[in-house]
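REVIEWER CHECKLIST
Item 1: Sequence provided? yes
Item 2: Single chain? yes
Item 3: Sequence as submitted:
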Amino acid sequence: MGTEERLAVFLDYENLALGAREHLGGMTFDFGPIADALAVRGRVVARRAYADWSYFDEDRRSLTRHHVELIEMPQRMGASRKNAADIKMVVDAIEMAFERDYITTFVMCTGDSDFSPLVHKLRELNRNVIGVGVEKSTSRLLPPACDEFLFYDRLEGVEVPDEATSEQQRPRRGNGTDASRAGSRNDGSRNDGGAGERSEPEQPAVDDEPVTPTQSLDVQLAQTLAGLLSSSNGPVTASVLKRTVLRKDPTFNESDHGFRSFGEVIRDLANRGIVEVSPGPSSGDPEVSLPEHGEREDAFALLRDVVGAVGGPVALSGLKDQLRKQRPEFSEKGLGYRNFLQFCRAADTAGVITLRWDDNTGDYLVTS
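Item 4: Structure as written out by the authors:
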């Protein structure tokens, strides 16, 4: 019991119910899949849902069966109270964080970015925060703020109707809730994509930017593991690797890639030679490392052959395209390198090629 996680669950019910109705083919929100997902993460000691329940009368029974405490926040008071439930939810969460120090994890079930300051404060108070929301009605600002974020539509037990796909393409209608405003309130969320890869002298200043969905699982884990190995003084275990992946991308879930557990992911990567595993501190938590030979050495050999075939210095810009003409599947990220420059610097350190900066061309020159 001493090491067991204790969870407190808070549901912004209007956001979830309307999000499921509008973006999941009109389906009724069911707390059951969330309860099942949380059961494997720890012991739930408090469950509270906030709404004007006169609008969700049929949902009361389902929530009561799951032992959820219903917090009534009436809206028909002759004045605007559209944020009353949100404010009450924030006050209760902060009060619980200060009064019940045995609660280790707060589960905020909402897609509303207005709860981001609450998430930041809870983490500042040394609490883990798990977010849960309907994917299409969740602001893109909220998941990165959490330690882990679960999309309701991806949970085991949620059967999304087939017509939900076409429903998601329709314009969102205003209904006074964040579920319908999520499209306009993805506010200011930066567009991380679209920037082509550039061969520049400087490396990215930040090594932990969120992994985009277009990156493969192999690349995602290899890059993360390479960063851990370069910054840590000791071995990296599978559990440390997964925690780090979740910090980079709180929406990461191995089941989205067809695996039942993270251990299966590691075994698959090891079988394909992408990582090496050795016994760790416990039987289910092996140490993970990048192979010293194998794919990396093959890539270095390819680089040496391409540069050698030119017979003289080769500009770094455009060199990657020449490698891909020989091997279309080449990717330095799959080998754990953040960019092509870092890959070439590693090859230079290994004595495979020589890399130097040339002021006249304003580029790196590579020789074999």
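Item 5: Key structural point noted by reviewer: Residues 165-215 have pLDDT under 50 and may be disordered.
Item 6: Recommendation: ____
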